Predict the 3D structure of the following.
Amino acid sequence: MKDGLIKILLLTDFSSGYSRDVLRGVVRYAQKKKGWAFYRLPLHFKMIYGSQEIVRWAKKWKVDAIIAQINDIDLKVLQSLGIPIIVQNYTDRLAGVCNLTGDYVGTGRMAADYLIGLGYKDFAYYGINDTVWSRERYEGYAERLDEKGFPPPHAYFEKGKGNESGIAPNFDSIGKWLRNLPENTAVFACDDYHALYLAETCQIHDIPVPDRIAILGVDNDELLCNISTPKLSSIVIDAENGGYRTAQVLDKLITENIKKTVNITVPPIQVITRESTQKYVIQEKYVKIAVDYIKEHYADDISVNTILDLVPISRRVFEKRFKENTGESIYRFIVKYRIEKFSMLLLSSDDPIEDLAVSCGFSDFKNISRCFMKYKGVTPSEFRKRKGE
């Protein structure tokens, strides 16, 4: 660091929504602190010129730290610079550097809970076997399904490292796998790129989505999700805040000359529902009537008794059938549906939090704050701040 200017070398992927969100967070912190400068080398630079050339440029620019997506780069060569390095890990977490990693297991568990809540009984996973984030998302997904009494998901693993240029999906092979899945299977894809491959395969092979196969991705890359037909549901990852915390860590390591390594873990936030999962797979007709009513009237003053008045069977029998079909009691289903709608508005609207809560059917603001904390682990205001608001 010279004259108070902190120089950061960015050696990362700028094409994916996740990487761009991470960089937005880094830049947001830099703009707040001032006195930061960035230098960029594309990922293919190493492939063309080698790791030593990266070191040469790092020395030429006199950078104070590196944020890198390590992909076949000789880490020992970079470590010879003696400066902090934060790695956006792919193949695995690395020793001797700070890892920008994720709660991949937790993401898989969130996917399972979401798809179970839609009433699915059959599940599948589409991923790649060479990346830690795909492997651990599968582990969390399978683990949660097992806890809920479901068999292991049908799985299809590609070989590769998960970037768009490095993978050539076999649409015929994937199509055959999809056709062999049971009717009404929910497929969790390791990221939005792979979810898009699934959607394209379904188009090629005339497999209706979500009527026969539901698809859920990860990263909520709005470009990929919205160019898909149908549009893709996806899990939002708190990547921008992860980038902000990455910059905070770098600032401390550089200014205080700290040598220890620190991992930054990026959690999943929630599922954004789009057309690829807009279906409840419910066999019991009265339960379907109740669920459809909740979806349409969640913002109204409805209660368990409101729902029971819709069906011509006893409360005890209906509550048992409802839980068998949705995995939740009637009350919890109503609350969770409202919470999901409320949390989506927190990320998309600048309106006062109390107004948004009322628009989702919550009349007691103190109660909604406590309830939100129970389901999301943070208060509504903290949840909104996670996206930089």
